[in-house]
Design a protein that fits this description.
The two termini are about 20 Å apart. A hairpin with a 5-residue loop joins strand 11 and strand 12. The protein is an alpha/beta fold.
Length: about 350
Amino acid sequence: MREVAIVAFGQSDHVRDSAETSEVEMLMPVLHDVLEQTGLAARDIDFTCSGSSDYLAGRAFSFTMALDGVGAWPPISESHVEMDGAWALYEAWVKLLTGEAETALVYAYGKSSPGDVREVLTRQLDPYYVAPLWPDSVALAALQAQALIDAGLTDERALAGIAARSRTAAESNPHAQLRGAVPAGEHLVAPLRTGDCPPIGDGAAAVVLAAGDTARRLTDRPAWIRGLDHRIEAHALGVRDLTDSPSTRLAAERAGAFERPVDTAELHAPFTSQEVVLRRALKLDAPDSTVRINPSGGALATNPVMAAGLIRLGEAAARIHRGESDRALAHATSGPCLQQNLVAVLEGETR
């Protein structure tokens, strides 16, 4: 199979409210950053793919306005997914695998501050039986957390420990929205407290992909995508076991994650309880495990909707670029209670 690597990663500083900044203004510095890292110009990019949501923007075809950040000239080969940018990366990866492109620019962005993101995300639910009840994303995550507690798989103290570890790790991440101590707080929706939930914020991210020798030319240590797969659970929450994630397990298996140990795992777990589910599905929950989980702070520290999954892949790749990781796992999710899951395995050059 043709080799494809992530050769550059950039992201914005993630903030609670970017009312003074448009999507284009938020994107442009990030896009310029990843191109500068590789020495490429816009004309050198063979394929561009983006991920975002019209529901967040509140207008149809909002991604066409964001294309101003890429530039109107020269003309580009472009695509878009109404999904997290991790799925845009998947489309670009396939494009490079088929030999239709040598390089690709992938970006994603989300501004959750203008509206009520908890209500916006109800539009992901079954439109006939569930969405009319308006159960928001936090309430559904609380159902999942309670199921885990009832099954004896975690408790509130363990969840608080995950939150504290994530916020501590985020102290070394200059782009993180939340850092440091987690406020105790009351239950937001029992059994979840404020620290168990992701911040609401705005942000953008981008990566550059390249194939074969092009990747080796563009960076000293490419993050090779050794496997990438995504799977989906049943849409109806009532027919799923919320304490498990078979789609994550299957995606990881197909991506080759279980063939050899990884040293780093960037998990897209917006809620502490979801990290518990993912660690079990990905076989990362052994007491003696030495895998570093979310050394960037993860989605509990930075969660721009539609970009947080791409950030997980970018953060894992960046650690390989810096020589801090040799084999990393990156995960992205979309939908309520880990409904859709993507898993990638990244490796540095064999030493």
